[in-house]
């Protein structure tokens, strides 16, 4: 393995890598746009905030079901088919919502479910392709970090783009734009040569599939708790902003967390790969991530809260990167795309759960701290055999 870790630019200069990454991010932009666009559309159509939020939450949960299924289809039949099928389903569902609105609630619910469950498995597909288009493991490690970092773009730029489009044009236009981006990104990704020619390794007939390795199950449960820290953070930001009379903090805190994640990803990619076992590497990252929440338990002025949120934010992408590499390493042959689908499902369930619990608990930072601590405990003992070298 090379002594100097390749940077993001080195990865993007490799064949097809820029196209694959840009197409994947474009195709996933709807995941950040649609929840906001749904709330604005529902409110325009006369629904109260509770109904509007329920539609957004339903959309957020449905990919947790669809992504593993479409990922398995990709592993069995190749990448283009689930990308085309998912894009067609999402485009049709969001297009219907843009035209018909949410006034007829049963129709809206069906469209929301289809739009969420049909999300093309672009994240899993991209991670299945990295080893085939990059020269060695060091490049793959950097590519995973780059991919994890760009997820922050989806969930920061997506809502902003939806709000800008809804304000400038209409909420329906925001839904239509999300549909168009899904279609364009999926087509650009699926028609790239690496995606067209990729085939998964032969897989054994096994009903458990990805879940068969004993270490996979605690890892996925740990990722549920990791996701819940993000869901709880959004509510905590609103709660602390309300308590301190600093309305600007409600949006600034999640944005600062995400921006720190981008910076943390860049710095992590520059580090020389460690030779420590995977479970030790994950444990160290998770422990620092957990410790980063401790100062936020102390009542502090809004600017200090914003500054202190940068530490857990900066650790989030490195931790997610190593967890992603571990998921794909643990996945049985021929299940790489499905494995990432399960990982995405775990994170989404965690985000939804963290959001749901944070409100009744008063939006305190105790919840993300507790979730991070449980994540650390789950990662520590059984993530990988002690003799397995770290991938990051």
Q: How does this structure look, described?
A:
This protein is an all-alpha fold. It has two domains: 8-121 and 155-197, Growth Hormone, Chain: A, CATH 1.20.1250; 210-382, Growth Hormone, Chain: A (Up-down Bundle), CATH 1.20.1250.20. Helices cover 76% and strands 0% of the residues. The chain is built from 17 helices and no strands. The protein is globular, with a radius of gyration of 20 Å. It starts with 7 loop residues before the first helix and ends in a 10-residue tail after the last helix. Residues 383-392 have low confidence and may be disordered.
Reported by name, the CATH topology of the largest domain is Growth Hormone, Chain: A
* Integer tally of domains: 2
Tell me about the biggest sheet? none
CATH architecture annotation of the largest domain = Up-down Bundle
The number of helical elements comes to: 17
What overall geometry do the principal axes of the alpha carbons give? Answer: globular
Average pLDDT, all residues: 87
Q: What CATH first level of the largest domain would be assigned?
A: Mainly Alpha
Which short descriptors sum up this protein?
Growth Hormone, Chain: A; 17 helices; 76% helix; mainly alpha; disordered C terminus
